[in-house]
Automatic annotation (TrEMBL):
Keyword Zinc: yes
Keyword Repeat: no
Originating organism: Pinctada imbricata
Entry's Gene Ontology molecular function annotations: sequence-specific DNA binding; zinc ion binding
InterPro entries to which the protein is assigned, alphabetical: THAP1/10, THAP_Znf, THAP_Znf_sf
Lineage of the organism: Eukaryota, Metazoa, Spiralia, Lophotrochozoa, Mollusca
Protein name: THAP-type domain-containing protein
Domain of life: Eukaryota
Cellular component terms per the entry's GO annotation: nucleoplasm
All residue ranges annotated as the THAP-type domain in the record: 9-90
Keywords on record: Cell cycle, Coiled coil, DNA-binding, Metal-binding, Nucleus, Transcription, Transcription regulation, Zinc, Zinc-finger
C-alpha cells in the first residue's frame, strides 16, 4: 500500500470527536498500521444500530453520510463484533485501549 493517497482514491477519516485517524496515515505511522475504518449501519437495514452509533459519538446535529466511518480504535474487539457491536472507546470515557489495536 502506498503511503500517499492516489487522486480519486477515497480517503476515510474517523468521525469520532477527538480522533485523528485517517487512512492516509496508515503508511506513515506505525500506530496506524492495523487501523481499519467501518461504515455506519444503514438507515434502511439497521436503523436502531445506526442511531446507537450516532448517540455514542456524542456529536451535536451529526447525520453521517455514506462516506462517514468510525475507526477500529473505538471498538473493544478492534471491529464490530457480536459481543461489542457498537463503538465504545472515546475520549469522554477515557478511551480504554482495545484488545486488537494499541492506541498511543
Amino acid at each position: 500500500m502506498s503511503s500517499v493517497a492516489n487522486p480519486g482514491q477515497k480517503s476515510y477519516f474517523c468521525a469520532a470527536p477527538g480522533c485523528s485517524s485517517d487512512d492516509r496515515k496508515r503508511g506513515r505511522y506505525g500506530y496506524m498500521a492495523g487501523v481499519q475504518f467501518f461504515a455506519f449501519p444503514t438507515q434502511k437495514k439497521a436503523p436502531n444500530a445506526r442511531k446507537k452509533w450516532v448517540e455514542l459519538l456524542r456529536r451535536e446535529n451529526f447525520d453521517p453520510d455514506r462516506k462517514a466511518r468510525v475507526c477500529s480504535r473505538h471498538f473493544v474487539d478492534g471491529k464490530p463484533s457480536k459481543e461489542h457491536p457498537y463503538p465504545e472507546l472515546f475520549d469522554y470515557n477515557n478511551f480504554k485501549e482495545s484488545k486488537q489495536v494499541k492506541c498511543y
